[in-house]
Amino acid sequence: MRRLIAVIFGVCLLLIVASFGGALHGIGDSLAVFRYLIAMGVAVSAALLQRRVGMRIAGVVLVAAGIWLAPEAARLVASGPLPQTTYSIYQKNLLYDGDQRRELAADILAADADFVTMQELFSANKIVLDVLQAHYPTQHFCGPVNGPGQVVLSKWPAVPGQVVCRGDIGAVGMQVETPHGRVWVLSIHLRWPYPYSQPKQVAKLLPVLAGLEGPKVIAGDFNMVPWSYAVRAIERASGSKRAGAMVRTLVYGSGLLQVPIDHVLVPGGQGQLQVRPLLGSDHLGVLLGFEL
């Protein structure tokens, strides 16, 4: 039994180290999703191995995990009315076969955000765009006619010719004229890292973001947690930072698996986030109030 616990301890320790290797291989970011659970495995197995030394190791690991998580955990409650802010953006992955489309459109209209980003648009759920057309006359859809596609909506007019439509890297966007100047609004939909192709997507996405002149507001389904290499690299390339509370937006199955993978990045990284209902999707909507 002691040998088994020692093996578990060693494996968990290696997995913790590997979870910081997202820049080297996609498996690093895949492990990063479970970093805090793995840290608990290190702590428990260390405590079982040897009472005195083990408890010390367990304490160090738990304190380290707490330091990693504390800044986000302190902001975990993300409901209630938004404070008065100049701009807001509503982010939603619709789910390819999601229902409650009219209810979703009604919730977006009630939120009255300046910008909207949506992913997994197929012909069946494009009715949402029709309902929102009058309120959001500026719409930029990218993808096959019948989907899957992404869309960016804005109350403000688009700058002619300033658009991004790159389905291969999961990026759609347009530059719009706001009362405070021009700003890029982009929707991101990345695949899962290992064993899928998120690392290749991110490698192609970074120079695209770096090449866009002006402030950038980026929202979407990143399929990755905030502390991952992928999200940090996108922040650096875009000059924007993730804003608002850490919200577990993906609700899988009966709700046992909940992961924070939908994010909004804004210049300066300051904003107040509010959770919106599932409304036929497996992703919660998020509404962020922010300043430019």
Task: Give the CATH class of the largest domain.
Answer: Alpha Beta
Number of domains: 2
Helical percent range? 25-40%
Low-confidence spans: pLDDT under 50, at least 5 residues? 74-79
Order of helices and strands: HHHHEHEHEEEEEHEHEEEEEE
Strand portion: 25-35%
Mind telling me which CATH architecture of the largest domain this is? 4-Layer Sandwich
CATH topology of the largest domain: Deoxyribonuclease I, Chain A
Q: Calculate the mean pLDDT score and round it.
A: 86
User: Can you tell me the overall shape?
Assistant: elongated
SS-based structural class?
alpha+beta
User: What is the CATH homologous superfamily assignment of the largest domain?
Assistant: Endonuclease/exonuclease/phosphatase
**Rg (C-alpha, Å):** 20 Å
Distance between the termini: 58 Å
Number of helices: 8
Order of adjacent strands in the largest pleated sheet: 3-4-2-1-14-13
Tally the beta strands. 14
Describe the protein.
It is a single chain. The chain is of the alpha+beta class. It has 2 domains: 2-73, no CATH class; 87-290, 4-Layer Sandwich (Deoxyribonuclease I, Chain A), CATH 3.60.10.10. 35% of the residues lie in helices and 28% in strands. It contains 8 helices and 14 strands. It has helices spanning 2-18, 26-32, 35-49, 51-73, 101-111, 127-132, 198-210, 229-238; strands at residues 87-93, 115-121, 138-142, 149-154, 158-166, 171-178, 181-189, 216-221, 241-242, 250-252, 257-259, 262-266, 271-276, 285-290. It has a 6-stranded mixed β-sheet, covered by helices on one side. A 6-stranded mixed β-sheet has the order 5-6-7-8-12-9, with helices on one face. Strands 10-11 form a two-stranded antiparallel sheet. The longest helix has 23 residues, at 51-73. It is elongated. Residues 74-79 have low confidence and may be disordered.
